[in-house]
Amino acid sequence: MKTLQIAGYKNTGKTTLILDFVQLLKQYGYTVAIIKHHHITEDVENSTDTGRFFEAGADYTTFNMPGHSVMLEQPEKPLTVQLQRFQNEGVDFVLVEGYKNENYSKIILTYSFTAGDTDINEIGLTNVLNRFDMRYDKDNAMNWFKEWSNIGNENV
């Protein structure tokens, strides 16, 4: 399983690039999981049945709907636990949006900085493989990803 973090400031194109990566990987038949780090807490406790299940002590609630399932769990699990689950499931690629302080291979999406902005190099990120400004570098990012992922190679 190959794991790549896509990190960057808000509105730098993280989600858009991940969607492009997923579409490319799916063209070659790979399984893809996405883990998104979100800073907003959903108010699950006030949402009808789900909140009641958690209030009663449930650790997991799964919604099975036609075509897909959604699992909620509490408390939140560390990224390492989530990645291990996908490893056990035989997932080929995991794309992680955010979790910038984790030490997995990552690319950083930036934008041109103006005076007073913090340079991405000053915030202490580790294991950064490349950096792209999606306003100008989309083709470069896609070409880099194709090379990094070994798309089409049977030995992922």
Structure, explained:
- It is built from 4 helices and 7 strands.
- With 156 residues, the chain is of the alpha/beta class.
- It has one domain: Rossmann fold.
- The termini are close together.
- 15% of the residues are buried.
How much of the sequence is in beta strands? 15-25%
Mean pLDDT: 83
Number of strands: 7
> Biggest β-sheet: count, sense, barrel?
5 strands, parallel
Q: Biggest sheet: strands side by side, in what order?
A: 2-5-1-6-7
Helical residues, percent: 25-40%
Feature tags:
globular, Rossmann fold, 4 helices, two-stranded antiparallel ribbon
Q: Gist?
A:
By secondary structure, the protein is α/β, with parallel strands linked by helices. It has four helices and seven strands; from the N terminus they run βαβαββαβββα. It has helices spanning 14-27, 48-55, 79-89, 138-149; strands at 2-8, 32-36, 60-65, 68-73, 93-97, 106-109, 128-132.
